[in-house]
């Protein structure tokens, strides 16, 4: 015997709510950060946005204007995309950031200097330079740790500084070149300041003397 119409309608509504909730829960938003007209926009996006399409990002993502101080030594557990136009903007948005999955999109034609940015815990990097010259997106797998090799959790310091076992240095001049994205790593590195005295970052970066680090240079 078929259930009454009211019960059937209630069942259909309940099932619809459950399916919608399950679909929404399965979606993971990604973070998009860009600078536009001297403002910084921090966006949460449920779908990929075409690189450097600021209007579309403001329309389809949930975006807020943030102060530069809010992004200092930030931490991102999921995917982060940064749109930038010059070296100072990229340094402001990325330097000393803790991020595992990162995409960088150059949205201008400026030539970038040979300067290094320090990134903590980076596993995967994608780079898009289409605004400067037509070229396919490049991808680089830097570290692929599974459950058998858990990444050590960052150590937090009183002033908000953070460190981890994996430190990547990104050469911003790579956006000027037509060559493929490359990287090399030096493992079990202790006393970093002695090995890399020319990197001024270590004068302020909190390095622990009783640890060994994996240092990666991306160029």
UniProtKB/TrEMBL annotation:
PANTHER family (UniProt xref): CHROMOSOME 21 OPEN READING FRAME 62, RCG58666, ISOFORM CRA_A
Lineage of the organism: Eukaryota, Metazoa, Chordata, Craniata, Vertebrata
Signal peptide: 1-26
Entry-linked InterPro entries: ECPIP
Name listed for the protein in its UniProt record: Uncharacterized protein C21orf62 homolog
This protein's UniProt keywords: Signal
Gene: CUNH21orf62
Superkingdom of the source species: Eukaryota
């Amino acid at each position: 015997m078929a259930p009454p119409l009211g019960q059937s309608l209630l069942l259909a509504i309940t099932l619809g709510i459950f399916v919608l909730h399950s679909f929404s829960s399965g979606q993971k938003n990604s973070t998009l950060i860009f600078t536009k007209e001297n403002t910084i926009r921090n966006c949460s996006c449920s779908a990929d946005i075409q690189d450097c399409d600021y209007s579309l990002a403001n329309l389809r993502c949930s975006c807020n204007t943030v102060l530069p101080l809010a992004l200092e030594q930030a931490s991102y557990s999921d995917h982060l995309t940064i749109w930038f136009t010059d070296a100072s903007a990229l340094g402001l948005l990325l330097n000393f950031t803790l991020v595992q999955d990162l995409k960088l999109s150059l949205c201008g034609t400026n030539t970038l200097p040979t300067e290094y940015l320090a990134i903590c815990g980076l596993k995967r990097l994608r780079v898009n330079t289409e605004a400067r010259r037509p070229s396919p997106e490049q991808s680089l797998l830097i570290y692929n740790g599974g459950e058998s090799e858990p990444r050590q959790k960052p150590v937090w310091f009183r002033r908000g500084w953070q460190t981890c076992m994996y430190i990547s240095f990104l050469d911003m001049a790579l956006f000027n070149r037509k060559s493929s994205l490359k990287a090399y790593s030096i493992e079990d590195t202790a006393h970093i300041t002695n090995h890399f005295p020319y990197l001024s970052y270590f004068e302020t970066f909190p390095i622990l003397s009783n640890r060994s680090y994996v240092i990666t240079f991306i160029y």
